[in-house]
Amino acid sequence: MQEQGIARRGGAAFIWKWGAISGVVLGVIQIIISLLPLGSLKTILDVLVWLIGFFVLGLFAARQTGRVRTGALVGLVAGLIGALIGRVLFVIIQIATNGQQITQALNQAGIPPGELNTASVVGIVIALVVLVALELGLGAGIGALGGLVGRRLARPATSTSVVDTLWTPPSHPLPRSPARHRVWAFLLNVAVVVLGILAGAVLAILTAGLLINAQVHAMQTTTNGWSITMQCGEASNGILLRAACAQTLPMVNLPQEAVYWTTTVDGAGQTLTGGHDYRLHFPPGGLPPNQAFWSLTMTNRQGQMVDNPSNRYSVGDRSGLVQGADGSIDIYIQHAAPAGHEANWLPAPSGDFKLWLRAYQPGAAILSGAYHVPPVVEVH
Fold first, then answer.
1. 298 phi/psi in degrees, rounded to 5
2. SS3 (DSSP) at 251
3. What pLDDT shows up at residue 153?
4. How does pLDDT run across 65-107, given as a tens digit for each residue?
């Protein structure tokens, strides 16, 4: 009866059950890692989670069934489910919602968001197919490797009674010494602990990211699409507020020295993109009050300056801006130079962008919150 129970655990139901459960868990962890602001560490953490996950899964399956092939098959199923959730589904959702990661990838490839052509779609599909194939191979290979270890920990079968044709018990008891068994059991415990540490680290980083993002929104005031905070730079700030400031404004002065407004949307709440033309209109006497200077800087969504033919990345009170007859100033924000208004032109990249308005030694109206930056208006 014991051998029959082991045999049943090696069947198709066992493979699909544990493969599906593990695939969902790995896929969700992969999505979480993809959303974290870890830079190049994402790839390293992603690979470690997959390798350890497949190894532990194959080890568990082989230990339960006594077959290396079961570990490989469970790893294969987990790789398939995990890839469908962590790669394909995530990319589909990102494309459908113009998610930030897809937008960044398209910008780096020189493809404006919303203008995916057939070749781009085919390229994305091919990349996904290759990626899924690699993860299937990784799941089967590492699962089999874990199966080799797990088989040594399996209770040897002493009967040839087989219920499921997918499982064949070993022809003779597996030789095993108590010392060797303790070594393999120790390695299994280490692998499980490491996987738990990685999963805990991912959840901890995700939780920290959620708390920091909540603090970012709490400390900012947004008017006409422009966001500003007056809380950064203070020595008395707590660690959460400091982390939020470091995420939004890596290098910041005290508000009495400089204030910073940022926006990625126009006055109507639409994303700023080089595919549209915009104008920032300062009415007479409506420039940011200051005792030093002010400037308006153009970057991409990640805060990095983008090359442009005119080598102009900011405009301000020292840029020779041309005033209107009534003393107002219009700044033209667009990808192509505006005919007749080149002096007031701030070149925009072809993709999404971000605007930074800075005022040094700001006036009392800014520090009190009475001054508001005019909205960026799309020009049709």
1. -105, 130
2. coil
3. 60
4. 777 777 778 877 887 777 777 766 666 655 554 445 555 555 5
Q: Please check the confidence at residue 377 and state whether its pLDDT lies above 50.
A: yes
Give the H/E segment covering residue 360: strand 353-360
Q: What pLDDT score does 59 carry?
A: 77
Cβ atoms within 10 Å, residue 221: 12
pLDDT for position 41: 67
What pairs with residue 3 in β-bridges?
A: none
CA nearest neighbour of 62 among 3, 4, 16, 15: 15
Give the integer Cα–Cα distance in Å for 117 and 104: 17
The owner of tokens 């919150």 is 369
> CA 174 → CA 66, 160, 169, 225, distances in Å?
10, 14, 11, 70
Structure tokens at 234: 């203070």
Interval 270-284 mean pLDDT: 94
Kindly list the strands in the beta sheet with 345-347, ordered across the sheet, starting from the edge strand earlier in the chain: 345-347, 329-334, 277-282, 376-379
Structure tokens at 228: 């500003």
Residue 273 structure tokens:
């993109």
Could you give the CA distance from residue 248 to residue 259 in angstroms, rounded to a whole number?
13
Residue 360 pairs in a beta bridge with 258
pLDDT digits (tens, 9 = 90+) for 201-223: 767 777 777 788 888 888 889 99
User: What string of DSSP letters covers 275-326?
Assistant: TSEEEEEE-TT-SPPBSS-EEEEEEETTS-----TT---EEETTTTPPB-TT
Q: Considering only residues 57 and 194, tell me which one the structure prediction assigns the higher pLDDT.
A: 57
In 171-293, which ranges are E strands? 221-223, 226-228, 258-263, 277-282
Average pLDDT of the chain is: 77
- Domains located in the chain, CATH noted: 2-216 (no CATH), 223-379 (2.60.120.600)
Query: pTM, whole model, 2 decimals?
Result: 0.55
CA 20 from centroid of its chain's CA atoms: 24
Give SS3 for 174. coil
Q: Is residue 178 packed enough to be buried (19+ CB in 10 Å), middle (13-18) or exposed (0-12)?
A: exposed
